[in-house]
Write a structure and sequence with these properties.
By secondary structure, the chain is of the alpha+beta class. The protein is built from seven helices and twelve strands. It is globular and about 50 Å long.
């Protein structure tokens, strides 16, 4: 990597450190269970290389229809003058402390487990799409094969069996860390404490209390939420979009 790209990446990191999405203290909320496990995920963008191994692993594990994804990595090209650098933004359900998808479900098919994981009971889902519209992160979709709501579940079936989610297990950069937010000795809790001032969440203004946290995120990406397959967006470092396309 040449010096100009290194300098730009360093500037991106510096901007990220000063970004004002939401500090960790404000991301926490009263709705977080005080007893038992409360799963959350930390994504270290400094380690993500955009290889899409997480996307492939999730697809193999959960078998969504072709062209639909429970998690993926959006790719952005940030420019400053004649220099440019790529930024990766992994996307998935945020398993919010205050999930807006739950109250709009007319059948109770979408609900939150005691450990904070938001799941969908396909037997109860009627495919109305209200939850898809309510999600501010475009993290839900109507499964083309089942005609029911679908989304990331943190691979709850694997967690229940003592395994890591498929995306975490296959991340080549070890950028995804999942664990118990209520356990101060868990790795995720220690990292959140260590990087407390640099932790960001997406769309904090929505008041959803996301439990997917990002480290190394640029402020320009706060509202860059897209529900489609990986895209390439040409932007200035201030967040102005110059070009968008596949």
């Amino acid at each position: 990597m040449d010096t100009s790209k290194r300098r730009l990446l360093g500037q991106i990191a510096a901007i990220s450190a000063g970004a004002v999405f939401i500090p960790l203290a404000e991301a926490d909320g009263d709705s977080t269970p005080t007893k038992g496990k409360r799963y959350g995920m930390l994504i270290d963008l400094r380690r993500c290389v955009g290889c899409q191994a997480c996307t492939v692993a999730c697809t193999i594990e959960n078998q969504p229809p072709l062209g639909q994804f429970r998690t993926t990595v959006n790719q952005y090209e940030v420019t400053e003058g004649d220099n440019s650098a790529f930024m990766m933004l992994p996307r998935l359900c945020n398993h919010c402390g205050n999930p807006p998808c739950i109250p709009v479900c007319p059948t109770g098919a979408t609900f939150q487990r005691q450990d904070g994981i938001v799941v969908v009971n396909n037997d109860w889902c009627v495919g109305c799409g209200y939850c898809v519209q309510a999600c501010p992160y475009d993290a839900r979709f109507l499964n083309h094969e089942t005609n029911t709501a679908d989304k990331c579940t943190f691979c709850a079936h694997r967690l229940d069996a003592g395994l890591l989610p498929a995306c975490v297990e296959t991340c080549v950069g070890e950028a995804r860390i999942i664990g118990d937010l209520n356990d101060p000795d868990s790795r995720i809790s220690q990292l959140l404490t260590q990087h407390r001032n640099d932790i960001k969440v997406l769309r904090p203004s929505m008041g959803t209390q996301p439990r997917v946290f990002y480290l190394g995120m640029n402020q320009a990406f706060a509202e860059r939420i897209r529900g489609e397959a990986p895209v390439r967006t040409l932007m200035t470092d201030s967040g102005k979009e110059l070009h968008h396309g596949h």
